[in-house]
Design goal:
Elements (H helix, E strand, L loop, with lengths): L2 H58 L5 H13 L2 E2 L2 E7 L4 E3 L21 H8 L5 E9 L6 E11 L4 E8 L1 H25 L5
Antiparallel strand pairs: 1-2, 2-3, 2-6, 4-5, 5-6
């Protein structure tokens, strides 16, 4: 076998190995970014649930009536918003109790249907069958947006009140970052590999 062919094989194997390493690194980065986002969502949903439980405890202690406790809980939870990020509250029938868009409050909204045909509300109910805190993947529109995008929601059930408290963040930016990095590596490879490939066979 000619030396040039051997060199070509070595370079080819090295390039293949580099591609595999890059793909593994990108997958690990994507998984890490998604897990960080999920942890943020889980923590925010948990804190919102704890906020509601504070008023539930006041009801149980007899300090507040149920109506008073729920009204104060809704007021407190409605203040947990920052720009397009907000805490929402629905009852088990899908009635919206707290939402960034006050026009939706007091109305039944079951949410969009996913690929499996379930509404957002049904996804929540299914996830909370055996636990009071869950993360779910849904599709939703950004405020003033028209396109459905992937979103992860953390949901907390307050059984005594029949409430579902939720907080979610879109995750499409993670996929965009993944493909942006992948494209950059591909472009770099297109420049480096031709320059390193043996000129003669």
């Amino acid at each position: 076998m000619k030396l040039s062919i051997r060199l070509g094989l070595i370079v080819g194997c090295a390039a293949l190995g580099a591609v595999i390493l890059v793909l593994v690194a990108l997958q690990a980065l994507h998984a890490s970014m998604l897990e960080d986002r999920r942890a943020e969502i889980r923590m925010m949903a948990k804190l919102a649930g704890k906020q509601a439980e504070t008023f539930l405890a006041l009801e149980k202690a007899g300090t507040l009536t149920r109506a008073e406790a729920q009204a104060q809980a809704r007021q407190a939870l409605s203040g947990l918003r920052d720009g397009d990020d907000y805490v929402l509250v629905r009852d088990l029938e899908g009635m919206v109790l707290v939402h960034a868009d006050s026009r939706k409050e007091g109305k039944v909204d079951l949410g969009a249907k996913g690929a499996d045909g379930r509404t957002t509300q049904q996804v929540y109910l299914d996830a909370l069958t055996t636990t009071n805190l869950a993360l779910v993947e849904i599709i939703s529109k950004r405020p003033k947006g028209e396109v459905f995008l992937p979103k992860v929601n953390g949901v907390v059930k307050i059984p005594e009140w029949g409430w579902i408290i939720g907080f979610g963040l879109f995750v499409d930016d993670i996929d965009q970052a993944y493909w942006k990095n992948a494209l950059q590596f591909i472009l770099i490879g297109c420049f480096i590999l031709p320059a390193s490939w043996p000129r003669h066979f």
